[in-house]
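@channel sequence for tomorrow's demo:
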Amino acid sequence: MTKKITMEDLAREAGCSRPQVSRAFNGQPNVSPEVRARVLAAVERLNYRNTANRHQVRIVVIVRDTSGMYGPLMLDALVKNACARKWVCHTVFEQNIHEIPDCFYDGAVSLIFNKSWARKWVEERTTPLVMINSYGTAFDKICSIDPDSSDGSRIVLQHLQQLGHRRIARIHFVDVEEEKYRRGQEEFLQEAARLKLGDSVRNFQFVLSETSLEDGIKAVLSQGFTAIHMIHQSLGIPAAKIIQSAGYRIPEDVSLVTFELPHISSYLTPAHTTIDFNYQEMARRALDELRLKMHGKESDGGAILVPNLLHIRESTGPCRA
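structure tokens (generated this afternoon):
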């Protein structure tokens, strides 16, 4: 079992007193720059983490921006969960990662899928890192808390199958950078096979710079699909408008499943049946994992999968084809 590093150990390593270590570690001004530098170097060499009972845990959440739906909702769930644990929670934008002092935070959570800097973090820092929603990508020594793509596909397909649908299309519009990931496609087709839907279920992935939203959706509709699962929160409403403007009724002609827009999806006409991330559970699992890592639990990395939520509303109905 790894020996717990104490402030006394840091003092001996840095060649100063314990009070000086405490002042340097907590950023207090009454300590010389030379002593502070020696203490911070000792913190890094010994991989020190302050896990004393009276220590208030500080974590940082790394974000790219606060636009869209997913980021703010996930951040809100993390902040609430951290506050319930009486942890201090700060937010830092991706471009300011270099300004995060390695000894100031007990742990970090990233809402950004960025393979290069994640690996660099592990190589250069001692602060434990947990990632959320990293496109199912496994990282060495970094745990990722991901929504379960197989579970999401399964509950959508089961719902549509129970309504009599067999011709089901999953439509995914991506930008050029996302094209190579094909997120969720394999899981969707695997779940269709398990439900014995076979070749009647298809995945369509379009690159936005090459195919317009309207052209892509109309091309799918022309092939006789009776149900559509539309990927991305931002595309659910425009997809419904395109389907209706093309002369199809929702759900009489085409059932539609989108992603949940809080306080919006349930008020649309018709109200959308949606798949939803379980933000509170993802936040809880992420901070549970971070707490273990802060206390020295080793991790080989990999993904922890969290089941999704399905909100059944008026945009899905019996297949009448």
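heads up for whoever presents: The radius of gyration is 24 Å.
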